């Protein structure tokens, strides 16, 4: 399961944009899509045109230009506005259930199905 | 005006008489159900008339309409608000109760009556909800001269039909729910029951699919983000019953053909309906933070929450009391059989459902428990769903090629392997041709192409009869394929422009030629004329708009989209405050139209199934 997770994370890294746009812009768009516009109703700052989102986009641009990595930018915003701003929830003590529960459910479902087959085989 | 309230009172009495005297009124039930439907229709049409005449003495009309609004939106505004949409919901509920009773003559009488009683319970619940917290016929005095207007983003032809279609889907699940509870009590859950309920499941599934599609298309061109699915809480909520219905669609087939999975079918029917109600609760209560939240009130939320718990409690209770009446059988399941692959399908679908459910609800719980707010957005869902799609797609292609009960000789084995190799080759070709893809995308592509080619192969098979299933599966492979292509190959540019400016984008030049102001009936619009020049191709003119509505005061952006077979060109402009620049976003989205086409294909499969004649079960 871990491997799958890692694969999928990698997968996401590469899914978003095509190479015809510069890497920097790609990164910028990706980060913008992952930040919630705090004054809108459920929009990322990428999708929003509010003043708040526009100024956030500028901040993201500056941070990228100053050489900060993606993770550093996220943690910067997290420090400023709390975890609410990140669309991609982090894997930590609060959120582990969020990430693991679906997978646990998947496994339990699998066990139930296997049990059904297993019980039938004994008879 | 007052006659409406009276009609509502008659409405209630007809229902309560129904509940109390159902034993005596067996014969008249038909007429009573029709009366109920008739009165619901009467009140609904009177509300429409009120909207058309702009009677602002009515509170609902006042809040959601105004005189200068076009007639079409005056009518659609009837269900573009909380009160009106609930009335519509009730109308459809009563209609289906009536329709079910007409169409279920071949079922045992007591089962039909029980179904109607459960149905009446649901109707009663919603009726009290309507009267208590959201009566559409509240009178206001003195009569205001002008209404407050309908939210402009809801003034759209697609959104006029989106709620009714979605409601048709939701409400039909209530029939499935009531009928399965009734069947449970009477111990009637068997392959014959499955045969009869199947139609309802397919009706519901088809409408829900179409409803979600309409909403998605609307979001694509109206919200101006150029996306079609945002993993927005409200979208998730509509997807959840769809997923459990999808599981039910498959599961009911197994029950019909093989007479297994009785309890699971009942559980799924209960889950589907409760998820629908749960969705209404979450949307109406305003707990969720979503773009769709346009009607919320804590009192309403509380009421639906109680109603929801009541229904869940009731159905769980009934389930445990009457569980022993379910046929238990230990038919041998062979691993290489159609039913096993359908069980696997259910397993994966339930997993997808749990991802979405947890992703949507977890932040609410976390906030209640620890007062911390987190957001769960697209990255979460993508990460947890995409990897599981790969085996899911492969099961989906192999499953239909297996036989019921047991597969002894693999006549198809060689063909399936050849197709697998073919899909590997084609996905490698796609990745090489476009470059810039990773191993993981290629693997997903292989799975997609595999389903794609297998379904095509199934079409070409001799004496082939299962069109419905193959069309839907083909549609699904096309859907995943186009979404994938779309997300990989989308290109876009954002820039601030003035009249006369031009920007270069790949091999194109985008020019902002002129701006034009015009006044429409209920809004002012600013049209921006863009010319897109491309070498060796005719120039393309796109005209996105900014609309300024006065009631309520809102600014919306209308995207200009040029659709052709291979890609959509999408341009949207926004006003940038304090200067005369326009914020322009130009996007090229490949295979966009195929996403819609494939969703239509998927639901087409459902339509075919509704009209298909029943086959004999293989027991």
Descriptors for this entry?
heterodimer, A: 123 residues, mainly alpha, Helicase, Ruva Protein, domain 3, 2 domains, 64% helix, 0% strand, elongated, B: 619 residues, alpha+beta, 3 domains, 6-stranded antiparallel sheet, 4-stranded antiparallel sheet, 17 helices, 61% helix
Find the biggest chain interface. A-B, 55 and 59 residues
Let me know the number of strands of chain A: 0
pLDDT averaged over residues of chain B: 81
Report the radius of gyration of chain B as a whole number of Å.
26 Å
Overall mean pLDDT of chain A stands at 75
Structural features, described:
The complex is a heterodimer of chains A (123) and B (619). With 123 residues, chain A is an all-alpha fold. Helix content of chain A is 64%, strand content 0%. Chain B is of the alpha+beta class and 619 residues long. In chain B, the strands form two sheets. In chain B, strands 2, 3, 4, 5, 6 and 7 form a six-stranded antiparallel sheet that branches. In chain B, a hairpin with a 2-residue loop joins strand 2 and strand 3 (508-519). In chain B, helix 6 (109-133) packs antiparallel against helix 11. The longest helix of chain B has 33 residues, at 338-370. Chain B is globular. Chain B starts with a helix and ends in an 8-residue tail after the last helix. The model of chain B has no long low-confidence stretch (mean pLDDT 81). At the A-B interface, helix 1 and helix 5 of A face helix 12, helix 13, helix 15, helix 16 and strand 1 of B.
